[in-house]
C-alpha cells in the first residue's frame, strides 16, 4: 500500500513514474539533442535509450549522457534486431522497475519533445495515447509527397482492414500506461518494423482499453538515415492483411452485429 501511494505522488502529475523509451540505431547525430529535449520538456520523466550496438557509437554517447544525468539510462543490446524487439526489451525494463507508464519516441527528431506534455496530460484519462499525424490540429513538416501518400494510404488500409477507429496506427509517438501493458499479451508480439505499432494498436483495441489520439507536429529527420526499407513495408502489408482477415472471420463466426459494424 505504501509503495503504491508513493508512486502516485511522484513522477509526472496524474500519471506517475514515466519512462521514455528511445530505440536507436546509428543516431549519433541525434541522440544528445533528443535526450536533452525530453529532459527539458518533461523534467520528471526518465529516459531509456535502447541501442542495438550501433556501429556509429550512439551507445557510447548515450552512456556519457547517463553518467551526467541520473534520469537517463541505457539498454545495450547485442545487435540490430528491429524496432519491435528494442521496444519490447524497453517495456520489460520499465515493468521490472515499476514504472506507471512508458512513452515510445523516435530518436531522429520527428517526434517533438514539446508535444510530450500534451501526450502525458491526455494519459491521465486514457490507457493508450497515440500522437497522431492525421487528426485535426496535427502537422507534418518537410515530408515529400511520396511519404505523405504512403503514410495516408497505410493508415487508410489499416483502418479498413482492422476496423479500428485510429487515424495513425503506424505512428510511433505514444504513451502506454501500465494498465494497457497489463492488458496486452506482449509475449505474442512478433512484428519488427512499422507493423509493431499497428500490432500494439490492434491488441490494445481488442483488449478494450481506452485509446485516445492527440495531434502532433511531425518533422522529417534532418540527420542520419531512415531505417525504413521495402522489407519493413512488406512485413506491415502482410501482417495487417492477415490480422484483418482473421479478425473479420472471427467476428463473422460469432455473428455479433456490433462487432461486424466495425468494418465498412
Ligand atoms: N534499437 C533499434 N532502434 C531502431 C532499429 N530500427 C530503427 N530504430 C530506431 O527507431 C526509430 C525510428 O526509426 P526511423 O529510421 O526513423 O524509421 P521511421 O521513423 O519509421 O522512418 P523515417 O520516417 O524514414 O524516419 C529511430 O530512433 C531509429 O534509430 C533497430 O533495429 N533497433
Ligand atoms: Mg523516423
UniProtKB/TrEMBL annotation:
One of its GO terms (molecular function) is dolichyl-phosphate beta-D-mannosyltransferase activity. It holds the Pfam family Glycos_transf_2. The keyword tRNA-binding does not apply. Keywords: Glycosyltransferase, Transferase. InterPro entries: DPM1-like, Glyco_trans_2-like, Nucleotide-diphossugar_trans. One of its GO terms (biological process) is glycolipid biosynthetic process. Residues 20-183 form the Glycosyltransferase 2-like domain. The keyword Nuclease does not apply. GO terms for cellular component: membrane. Belongs to the glycosyltransferase 2 family. This is Dolichol-phosphate mannosyltransferase. It comes from Micromonospora narathiwatensis.
